Amino acid sequence: MKILVSRLAVAAALSLCISASPALAEAAPAPAAAPTAAQADAFIAAAEKESYDYVTEASRIQWVNNTFITEDTDALAAQSGAKGTEMAVRFALEAAKYKDVPGLSFDTKRKLDMLRNGIVLPAPTKPGAATELNEIATRLQSSYGKGKGTLDGKVLNGSDIEAEMGELTHTPAEYQEMWTSWHDNVGKPMKADYVRLAEIANAGARELGFADTGAMWRSGYDMAPDDFAKLTETLWQQVKPLYDSLHCYVRGKLNEKYGDAVQAKTGPIRADLLGNMWAQEWGNIYPLVAPKGAGDLGYDVGDLLKAQGFVSTSPSEMDPAKRGFWEKKMFKYGEGFFSSIGFAPLPDTFWTRTQFIAPRDREVICHASAWDVDQKDDLRIKMCTKVNSDDFTTIHHELGHNYYQRAYNKLSPLYLNGANDGFHEAIGDSIALSITPQYLVDIKLLDPAKVPSADKDIGLLLRQAMDKVAFLPFGLLIDRWRWGVFDGSIKPADYNKAWTDMRLKYQGIVPPVARPDDAFDPGAKFHIPGNTPYTRYFLARILQFQFYEAACKIAGWKGPLHRCSYYGNKAVGEKLNAMLAMGASKPWPDALQVYTGSREISGKAMLTYFAPLKKWLDQQNKGKSCGW
Ligand code: X8Z
Ligand code: ZN
């Protein structure tokens, strides 16, 4: 989700970007000397009030810009963003004055810290800097939204080309065309803007006392920034063997399918053959890697939906009653899960204000996001949904954000956020892990006679691993690249080379063709032009298994972990809600403890879930030379 987009993002960028109005600043000027705890409390109260009002207004502007990109909505979004940045920076500077005041309450101290380190893109106080920064950020995001690629020479928008990359019907030459056209058309023109954006944001971060913007991003996790970087490395080392085994196995299967000339038996995997534009999740090519015969899972959720008559809205469909009809029904399944564990239904306005599908007649940001526009109950999702398995999962992901937002909506403004950003990203995914064969039977999508028997467990696990495990190095490297850009260890001249090198180092993948000198491939991934920190997704990939394992324990599940669905279990819903309702009011280990009993983020639950698959993969890989 994007920084200025959802309220969630807003919390990261805007809500913390919210600051006192000039009037308030006058009413409560920072004391010249020896500020008191009472003055700090008054400052926080004023800041929270101001921020709350600003976020609602800014969210509306962002919503309109995201769902109707024009020169005018870009201008309005940039203007509003600049106002937010200026306020947030002013707040951060003022908060710093109170940080060592004796006698601060827990909440005031916590909120002062949030104000000091919670800005995604800070700008220096120099007049015009915030405006320039926000004009660039808006231009980058909107360019991404308007981005196009081609297939057999035919122009496709972002959501269409993403869906085509997930189809198995194309030739390697076609995948290559889609990959290359997307990266060239979307990424390349962004380079100069991105260089300038990093410069301005870094100047802003330094004025606020941080070494660079990346250091600021690492400071939002209730621990020292360096310890956070170390934590991500520890987690990666814990789960890396799983990725290495999967990589080796999948490479072998791609070699069998395409032959040595397209995919060699050794070395890295060609990035465009993995069923996803960014090679971040590989589930779409599951049929190519499925165990032969008995072990195969035997169904695909997208196909099950299609078998029930679900069909993606045709771009040329003119009847408003038909546009989004089936896609909306997909959302009903998601809502149904949350209702079954005790959450109140979505508000009526969700169904009238959500953007379910790409509009016919205007440019929008198709990348999915979840919003709570009035910070109370104006929940919405913006998606360009297609009837396929990826989007069925994404719907649950986005709804997780919305239910989280509503669960904490009674808290004070600075606490209207997740325990950390990884928690926010993990909730919906942890629900989606409950989409088991039995659950699909329960919701009448799968014929009970077709529930795969226990001997199909490997297929089931492999299908999950293709999305969940494959993602891990991608989830890590995006911000390792940005941390390097921000700290200057990656220079503008090397932006693309460093990106390609990291894709090779972490994911073991290579572009289908050598990249030109002026390429800017990072720009072809939404969260770079969208300026959304990405380590949250790496954390979420691990946390979601901890949440899921805890929920299954509460539900009293006795079988293999991956067969557990807690659909309909109110005790799970109650415990989950207890964590969600805490919002950002306590350090994240407190929240984790409420739901899982543990205070540590750990890859153990994920390793337990995939343990039978790891064993199987290693048997399959015997005699092969793994690695790249
Ligand atoms: O951006 C998203 C969500 C919105 S927060 C659709 N995700 C990441 C991505 O698409 O790259 C979810 C998984 C990772
Ligand atoms: Zn998300």
Automatic annotation (TrEMBL):
Which interval of the chain is the signal sequence? 1-25
Keywords of the record: Disulfide bond, Glycoprotein, Metal-binding, Signal, Zinc
| Chain positions recorded as chloride binding sites | Y221, R536
List, alphabetically, the GO terms of the cellular component aspect: membrane
- Residues involved in Zn(2+) 1 binding: H397, H401, E425
Instruction: List, from the UniProt record, the residues annotated as the active site of this protein.
Output: E398 (proton acceptor 1), E398 (proton acceptor 2), H527 (proton donor 1), H527 (proton donor 2)
Q: Does the keyword Metal-binding apply?
A: yes
What's a Gene Ontology MF term here?
peptidyl-dipeptidase activity
* Residues bound to Zn(2+) 2: H397, H401, E425
For biological process, the GO terms are: proteolysis
CDD domains hit by this protein: M2_ACE
Q: Which SUPFAM superfamilies match?
A: Metalloproteases ('zincins'), catalytic domain (SSF55486)
User: What intrachain disulfides are recorded?
Assistant: C366-C384, C552-C564
PANTHER family, from UniProt?
ANGIOTENSIN-CONVERTING ENZYME
What name does the UniProt record give this protein?
M2 family metallopeptidase
Write down the species: Sphingobium nicotianae
